[in-house]
Amino acid sequence: MIPTDHDLLAARVEELRAELRALPADTDDARARALARWIGIGLVSLGNYGDGSTFLRQALDLATASGNTRAVIATGLNLGDAYRYAGEAETADVLYRRALDTARSQHPELVDFALQHFGKHLMEQGHLVLARAHLREAWQLRSAKGDTSLIESTQAALDRVALLIGQANTGTTADC
């Protein structure tokens, strides 16, 4: 995640932080959760993984406490991304697996998102065959949804994993 306008994103994150700080104590937790999530995503996009993870953890805790499993899945994926970008692969792996398991059991409409995030993580970790399997399943689900932007995103990831598998097959044996 690379912001197209770093300064604008930083200013927007500060506005959201001010809004979160100004929320009255009796405000619905859903608003605090949404703000914490967007602040966390913004901070991660700005490369501030530590603070981003803190806000995303807060959002995940609020989603869990409210029983909002859709928000738990989405925020868990975002937190997984934060750890992935920070180089903490093991923690990211746990979060992606948990989000995928929850999506499969409770929100099948979100499985493709969990597969996409997890597949890209697996690709970056060199688990190319497993990554390809996750991404193929995501592609199939997204094709059934008919959303071309999601299909294109998954196809780009599949093309990348195919290239990496090809390179591994022509060079030394990789962890495929």
Question: Could you outline the blueprint of secondary structure elements for this entry?
Answer:
Elements lengths: L5 H17 L6 H17 L3 H18 L2 H17 L3 H18 L4 H14 L3 H18 L2 H23 L6
What can you see in these coordinates?
The chain is mainly α and 176 residues long. It has 8 helices and no strands. It has helices spanning 6-22, 29-45, 49-66, 69-85, 89-106, 111-124, 128-145, 148-170. The relative contact order is 0.08.
Strand content: under 5%
Q: Describe the largest sheet.
A: none
Helix proportion: over 70%
- In whole angstroms, the N-to-C terminal distance is 26 Å
Over the alpha carbons, how many angstroms does the gyration radius reach? 17 Å
| Low-confidence blocks of residues | none
Give the integer mean of the pLDDT values. Answer: 94
Derived from helix and strand composition plus strand pairing, the structural class reads: mainly alpha
β-strand number: 0
Q: Give the CA-based shape.
A: globular
Order of helices and strands: HHHHHHHH
| Count of separate DSSP helical elements | 8
Keywords:
176 residues; mainly alpha; 81% helix
